[in-house]
Amino acid sequence: MTDPALDPATALVAVAHHRGIVTLTLDSPANRNALSAALVAELAEGLTRCGKDRDVRAVVLTHTGNTFSAGADLRDPPHPDALVDLMRQIVALRKPVLARVTGHVRAGGLGLLGACDIAVASTDATFAFTEVRIGVAPAVISLPLLPRTDPRALARYYLTGERFDAPEAARIGLVTATGDDVDEVLAPMLDGLRRASPQGLAETKQLFTARVLETFDRDAADLTALSARLFSSPQAREGMTAFLERRDPAWVV
User: Which SUPFAM superfamilies does this entry report, sorted A to Z (predicted)?
Assistant: First the structure.
């Protein structure tokens, strides 16, 4: 059932309910579900509604098209504070949030993935931290990622911007499980969540998110400032311009 509170003709996030599970679908395929200011605000509103609805047992975050999220929308980027608040909202929500990925994930989209409690990806999904290639750093998205992901692997992929596949994402702790059919992989997980008590889910989630929330509380201000500084730098302007013009930036040798 589609949420009647949202106009499906203009919504960037589609909402559906089924047996206690709300699915929030990033639905901006024209820009590969890039994190625009509008999409971030709409997703935050959808999560707020889920948090207040006693009938919601868990949330599934998924996407239309072949890309879960291409990262920040360079034409209409959200303020770093807004992205930090969205990721923290996912981590702090007293209901499990599961990512269902059947496409590619880049840059800021990996922050959403890292904030989710469970992430399932199709075997043909790909991942890349592309920030260094446009002159910035994966600053605020590190808040959920550094406490949850293998640090040596993260150093490699942060620094090189290399693309990696779903089995590697599972190996380093970025995703929980992979499979040719993500819905088949998710089915027993959703069944388990439906059988769990709301109180049990909320308190259990708090056990493994406490350290992540401590990282937000300690480092969010510094990393937000770093992100803002880098995005306003000359190298970032060159990198973003080169990306939009589909050419190599000036520093490529």
Answer: ClpP/crotonase (SSF52096)
